[in-house]
Amino acid sequence: QVQLVESGGGSVQAGASLTLSCAVSGRRLSHYTLAWFRQAPGMEREFVVSIKWEDGRTYYADSAKGRFTISRNNAKNTVQLTMNSLKSEDTAVYYCAAVLDYGSGHVVRSSAYNNWGQGTHVTVSS
């Protein structure tokens, strides 16, 4: 089992930047995919971006392309999500998730992930 703890959420103005961090513990992360999801009030949880720990390959949702960047720190066992040019529609609870993944494709379904953090709130005001 993998434990995930998010941090870095907050309230910002539209156009600002924010970096979220996810501390990962419990297992070696080889062959794991780490991902960020978000859930706005009244909406379903949606995929934002994922990264394969083994080789660093990433996959972005269209809503995140060009504005968000995911990165990993192997030494610290952390995953970061840097969000630039934030919009009001980015307001949501952001979750870090992990799944053991031996496939070559990218896992985007939330139901496929079996390890979740508690979430961190991001509020963007216009």
Overview of the molecule:
The chain has strands at residues 3-7, 10-13, 18-25, 32-39, 46-52, 58-60, 68-73, 78-83, 92-100, 115-116, 120-125. Strand 7 and strand 8 form a beta hairpin. It has no helices and eleven strands. The model has no long low-confidence stretch (mean pLDDT 96). Strands 2, 4, 5, 6, 9, 10 and 11 form a seven-stranded mixed beta sheet that branches.
Secondary structure: elements and pairs:
Layout: E1 3-7, E2 10-13, E3 18-25, E4 32-39, E5 46-52, E6 58-60, E7 68-73, E8 78-83, E9 92-100, E10 115-116, E11 120-125
Parallel strand pairs: 2-11
Antiparallel strand pairs: 1-3, 3-8, 4-5, 4-9, 5-6, 7-8, 9-10, 9-11
Summed up, what is this model?
The chain has 126 residues and is mostly beta strands. The protein has strands at residues 3-7, 10-13, 18-25, 32-39, 46-52, 58-60, 68-73, 78-83, 92-100, 115-116, 120-125.
